[in-house]
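Figure 2 data, in text form.
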Amino acid sequence: MKKLLFVLALLCASLFLPAQTITALDDSLSQTPAVNAEYFQTLEKLDKIAAQGVRNADLFHDIGVCHFHLGEQGEAVLWFLRALNLDSAHKPSRQNLEYISSSLPSEQEETHEPYLVQLFLGIWNFFSLNRLAIVVLILAVLTTLSLHLLFFYPPQKERGLPVLAVMICVILLLVSGIALGVKNHRHRHNSKAVVLREAELKTQAKNGKAFRVLSPGTVVETKQNGSATMQVILPDGVGGWLDKKDVELVVPQKIR
């Protein structure tokens, strides 16, 4: 029993351990982007690592930082979103996205959510896939222990407390399991895409009339993916079509 409690304590502590960084890049983007040979060389090295199939939030974040300092704002937003898709609790990527979005035109601005919604989203983002998996494991162990306690509880004593413990553990386990399944599905089927360069939003896929110009770094939701165009929806609800060469999916189709 003591060993089991010790293992549970270690699992709980791992929820709050900070992620290790791959490179020592500056997390802050509040500097003037400039073409820098050091960032270019670092980006080449990081791209080679990513090309080998390495998928790590710190790696993607550092690639985004390099792109930003090379003046490629769209690519920076894309890689920060990819980092958050892997680890929703990756604070540097979220902070850098907020910094970039504050400098984008009004079509990228979103309305402020109510406080309770912001609180829920903060909790939802804090529990990344790995943290949720650990929580599910801990709750599964606690559910097993509570069932063991219930089965071997002295028959002459009131069983209200062990029954309550079992019910609470089972409910929390079900909620955490459902949350893990939902987050895993969204992780694999992320519908967001990023405008990499200035692009015209058109009314139709073919021969459509351009009615809005989107800035690099604009985040859109994809609805339909054609051969040469992509149907998207902007944060303000306006829909249209973009040339596929101007936009990149957060989760490439080849790894979905």
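Caption note: The longest strand covers residues 219-225.
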